[in-house]
Amino acid sequence: MKPTPRLGRLNRLGRKRGAQPKVVALGGGMGLSASLAALRRITGDLTAVVTVADDGGSSGRLRDELGVLPPGDLRKALAALCGDDDWGQTWSRVIQHRFESQGELHDHAVGNLLIVALWEQLGDHVQALDLVGKLLGAHGRVLPMSAVPLELQALVKGHDPEHPGNVDLVRGQATVALTPGEVQSVHLVPHDPPAVPEAVAAVLDADWVVLGPGSWFSSVIPHLLVPQLLDALVETKARKVLSLNLAPQPGETDGFSPQRHLEVLARHAPKLALDVVLADLAAVPDPDSLTHAAKGLGAEVELAPVASQESSAKHDPVLLAAAYDRIFRMHGRIGPWR
């Protein structure tokens, strides 16, 4: 029997017994995985909406060869939603396992192949991901933000070290993530990709939407470049929390202060308002400047210890869960949630 997700203190606020917040988490890669590993500890009503612009590694090879959505970030989200019991941890390791060989299978992840196989069998992205989640016993649902593969493009100053003053167009998420230059802005190709309807519906029906942490230009901001998804984020009655990274990301956000992350986000989605900005105090050298920037987005700043003891650049899922739990209780609706 699979364990029931722990609700922590969420049931102690006079809500109906068993009531849980509906939470939607947006992002990609390891940042979203960290957020999901925390959120699954405090709610059983969790949906991940995942970027689909990856063009590197196993995902990029499958995308190029088969014309499918890149499955890698979707796989990572499913792995993060696996439980802590033997079943969940075994399946988490299996789908994350990569083959090592001298042939074509080298570096392909088992989960990527499984997801793509089900897409081809079922012809439905959402149904296939739901089936993988059922197999894994995932504590939540995983959805792609769009049903078409996307290309991330960026305007980058100094991408060519020999011409540091030039602003060049850089194509591809993998290239953008590793650029030695300064990313000015990003956009998607196609420019107006359709959002997955289930993702839009989840955002509109949520109590809380969590954006970040993660690669700012290649995992966080892309969600704001899908028109239907951005409209849902602006229109939803859900409260929104932005979780900041613990350290600048080499290549994408070198030299960025916490408040600059907010300024960049506001430039890409000027109509988007937030309720809470979550950051680790140790990663915020100037709390007053961050507070000022957050107010410009309509948000309050919550500082909490969320870094892992093993690495100050990685989130601890238990500490992050405690921070989300406190935010939901202090800033959320008094039950029932809806």
What do these coordinates show?
- With 338 residues, this protein is an alpha/beta fold.
- The chain is 38% helix and 15% strand.
- It is built from 13 helices and 10 strands.
- The strands form 2 sheets. Strands 3-2-1-7-8-9-10 form a 7-stranded parallel β-sheet, with helices on both faces. A 3-stranded antiparallel β-sheet has the order 5-4-6.
- Helix 1 (29-39) runs parallel beside helix 3 (72-80).
- The chain starts with 22 loop residues before the first strand and ends in a 7-residue tail after the last helix.
List the helices and strands and how they pair.
Blueprint: E1 23-27, H1 29-39, E2 46-50, H2 57-66, H3 72-80, H4 86-96, H5 110-122, H6 125-136, E3 141-144, E4 151-157, E5 167-171, H7 173-177, E6 182-189, H8 197-205, E7 208-211, H9 216-220, H10 227-235, E8 239-243, H11 258-268, E9 276-279, H12 287-295, E10 300-303, H13 317-331
Parallel strand pairs: 1-2, 1-7, 2-3, 7-8, 8-9, 9-10
Antiparallel strand pairs: 4-5, 4-6
Helix pairs in contact: 1-3, 1-13, 3-4, 5-6, 8-10, 11-12
